[in-house]
Design brief:
Largest sheet: 5 strands, mixed
Strand order of the largest sheet: 1-3-2-6-7
Strand content: 15-25%
GO molecular function: protein-disulfide reductase activity
Keywords: Redox-active center, Signal
Shape: globular
InterPro entries: Thioredoxin-like_sf, Thioredoxin_CS, Thioredoxin_domain
Order of helices and strands: HEHEHHEEEHEEH
Protein name: Thioredoxin family protein
Amino acid sequence: MKRIFVLLICFLVWASSASSQEEGAVNWLTFEQLEDSLKTNPKKVFIDFYADWCGPCLQMQRHVFTDKKIIKLLSKQYYAVKMNVESTDTIQFGNDVFFNERQNRRNPIHQIPLLMASRKNKPFSLPALIILDEKFKAQARYFQYLNVEQLSEILEKTISEKQ
Protein backbone atom coordinates (compact mmCIF):
# COMPACT_ATOMS: atom_id res chain seq x y z
CA MET A 1 0.00 0.00 0.00
CA LYS A 2 2.86 2.37 0.85
CA ARG A 3 4.45 1.67 -2.55
CA ILE A 4 1.26 2.55 -4.40
CA PHE A 5 0.99 5.77 -2.43
CA VAL A 6 4.61 6.73 -3.31
CA LEU A 7 4.02 5.89 -6.98
CA LEU A 8 0.84 7.96 -6.97
CA ILE A 9 2.68 10.96 -5.48
CA CYS A 10 5.47 10.61 -8.08
CA PHE A 11 2.92 10.48 -10.88
CA LEU A 12 1.09 13.58 -9.60
CA VAL A 13 4.36 15.54 -9.33
CA TRP A 14 5.35 14.47 -12.85
CA ALA A 15 1.91 15.30 -14.29
CA SER A 16 1.91 18.70 -12.60
CA SER A 17 5.39 19.46 -13.92
CA ALA A 18 4.50 18.41 -17.47
CA SER A 19 1.32 20.46 -17.37
CA SER A 20 3.09 23.61 -16.17
CA GLN A 21 5.74 23.25 -18.90
CA GLU A 22 3.02 23.14 -21.55
CA GLU A 23 1.39 26.27 -20.18
CA GLY A 24 4.64 28.09 -19.37
CA ALA A 25 6.00 28.69 -22.84
CA VAL A 26 5.08 28.72 -26.48
CA ASN A 27 5.93 25.44 -28.16
CA TRP A 28 8.02 26.85 -31.01
CA LEU A 29 8.50 24.54 -33.96
CA THR A 30 11.05 24.47 -36.74
CA PHE A 31 9.95 24.43 -40.37
CA GLU A 32 10.81 20.73 -40.57
CA GLN A 33 8.63 19.99 -37.54
CA LEU A 34 5.87 22.19 -38.98
CA GLU A 35 5.72 20.18 -42.18
CA ASP A 36 5.21 16.95 -40.26
CA SER A 37 2.62 18.53 -37.97
CA LEU A 38 0.60 20.00 -40.84
CA LYS A 39 0.44 16.59 -42.52
CA THR A 40 -0.96 14.85 -39.44
CA ASN A 41 -3.18 17.60 -37.97
CA PRO A 42 -3.73 20.74 -40.08
CA LYS A 43 -3.96 23.98 -38.04
CA LYS A 44 -3.32 27.65 -38.66
CA VAL A 45 0.33 28.72 -38.51
CA PHE A 46 1.91 31.66 -36.74
CA ILE A 47 5.48 32.57 -37.74
CA ASP A 48 7.73 34.95 -35.85
CA PHE A 49 10.76 36.10 -37.83
CA TYR A 50 13.31 37.77 -35.57
CA ALA A 51 16.99 38.67 -35.24
CA ASP A 52 19.17 38.80 -32.14
CA TRP A 53 19.85 42.52 -32.73
CA CYS A 54 16.15 43.46 -33.17
CA GLY A 55 15.01 45.36 -30.06
CA PRO A 56 11.25 45.09 -30.70
CA CYS A 57 11.66 41.34 -31.41
CA LEU A 58 13.39 40.86 -28.06
CA GLN A 59 10.71 42.92 -26.30
CA MET A 60 8.01 40.72 -27.80
CA GLN A 61 9.89 37.62 -26.69
CA ARG A 62 10.14 38.93 -23.12
CA HIS A 63 6.73 40.52 -22.70
CA VAL A 64 4.30 39.13 -25.30
CA PHE A 65 5.31 35.52 -25.98
CA THR A 66 5.53 34.85 -22.22
CA ASP A 67 1.97 36.02 -21.56
CA LYS A 68 -0.37 33.19 -20.52
CA LYS A 69 -3.14 34.28 -22.89
CA ILE A 70 -0.77 34.39 -25.87
CA ILE A 71 0.79 31.05 -24.91
CA LYS A 72 -2.65 29.47 -24.65
CA LEU A 73 -3.84 30.89 -27.99
CA LEU A 74 -0.69 29.88 -29.85
CA SER A 75 -0.53 26.44 -28.25
CA LYS A 76 -4.13 25.44 -28.85
CA GLN A 77 -5.07 27.12 -32.10
CA TYR A 78 -1.82 27.48 -34.06
CA TYR A 79 1.46 25.89 -34.89
CA ALA A 80 3.98 28.49 -33.81
CA VAL A 81 7.24 28.76 -35.73
CA LYS A 82 10.12 30.98 -34.71
CA MET A 83 13.04 31.65 -37.02
CA ASN A 84 16.15 33.79 -36.71
CA VAL A 85 16.30 35.55 -40.09
CA GLU A 86 20.10 35.35 -40.06
CA SER A 87 20.14 31.58 -39.66
CA THR A 88 22.72 29.76 -41.75
CA ASP A 89 20.75 26.50 -41.59
CA THR A 90 19.71 24.71 -44.74
CA ILE A 91 16.00 24.00 -44.38
CA GLN A 92 14.00 21.49 -46.36
CA PHE A 93 10.32 22.37 -46.45
CA GLY A 94 7.85 20.86 -48.85
CA ASN A 95 9.74 19.83 -51.92
CA ASP A 96 12.17 22.73 -51.70
CA VAL A 97 15.46 23.42 -49.97
CA PHE A 98 16.10 26.88 -48.54
CA PHE A 99 19.37 28.38 -47.34
CA ASN A 100 20.98 31.70 -46.56
CA GLU A 101 22.45 32.96 -49.81
CA ARG A 102 23.68 36.11 -48.08
CA GLN A 103 25.61 34.63 -45.15
CA ASN A 104 28.89 36.47 -44.50
CA ARG A 105 27.48 39.54 -46.25
CA ARG A 106 25.69 42.63 -45.06
CA ASN A 107 22.01 41.93 -44.20
CA PRO A 108 22.37 38.14 -44.22
CA ILE A 109 18.66 37.35 -44.44
CA HIS A 110 17.71 33.69 -45.03
CA GLN A 111 15.65 32.79 -48.11
CA ILE A 112 12.53 31.80 -46.13
CA PRO A 113 11.91 35.19 -44.44
CA LEU A 114 12.75 36.96 -47.69
CA LEU A 115 10.16 34.85 -49.46
CA MET A 116 7.44 35.16 -46.81
CA ALA A 117 8.00 38.57 -45.25
CA SER A 118 9.19 40.85 -48.04
CA ARG A 119 7.01 43.74 -49.11
CA LYS A 120 6.88 45.42 -52.48
CA ASN A 121 8.90 48.65 -52.59
CA LYS A 122 9.84 48.44 -48.91
CA PRO A 123 13.02 47.18 -47.27
CA PHE A 124 12.86 43.98 -45.23
CA SER A 125 12.04 44.86 -41.64
CA LEU A 126 11.55 43.21 -38.27
CA PRO A 127 9.69 42.07 -36.37
CA ALA A 128 7.82 40.17 -39.06
CA LEU A 129 4.80 38.15 -37.95
CA ILE A 130 2.96 35.97 -40.44
CA ILE A 131 -0.33 34.13 -39.98
CA LEU A 132 -1.20 31.36 -42.42
CA ASP A 133 -4.23 29.13 -42.81
CA GLU A 134 -4.19 25.34 -42.62
CA LYS A 135 -3.18 25.13 -46.28
CA PHE A 136 -0.18 27.41 -45.64
CA LYS A 137 -1.77 30.37 -47.41
CA ALA A 138 -0.97 33.79 -45.91
CA GLN A 139 -3.87 35.39 -44.06
CA ALA A 140 -2.12 38.32 -42.42
CA ARG A 141 1.32 39.88 -42.06
CA TYR A 142 2.48 42.39 -39.45
CA PHE A 143 5.75 44.30 -39.42
CA GLN A 144 5.73 46.00 -36.04
CA TYR A 145 5.85 45.40 -32.32
CA LEU A 146 2.49 44.11 -31.11
CA ASN A 147 1.64 44.15 -27.42
CA VAL A 148 -0.33 41.39 -25.71
CA GLU A 149 -3.72 42.98 -26.33
CA GLN A 150 -3.02 43.67 -30.00
CA LEU A 151 -1.63 40.21 -30.72
CA SER A 152 -4.35 38.37 -28.80
CA GLU A 153 -7.03 40.33 -30.68
CA ILE A 154 -5.40 39.44 -34.01
CA LEU A 155 -5.02 35.77 -33.10
CA GLU A 156 -8.62 35.50 -31.89
CA LYS A 157 -9.95 37.32 -34.95
CA THR A 158 -7.97 35.06 -37.29
CA ILE A 159 -9.27 31.95 -35.52
CA SER A 160 -12.88 33.05 -35.91
CA GLU A 161 -12.43 33.79 -39.62
CA LYS A 162 -13.04 31.06 -42.18
CA GLN A 163 -13.98 28.29 -39.74
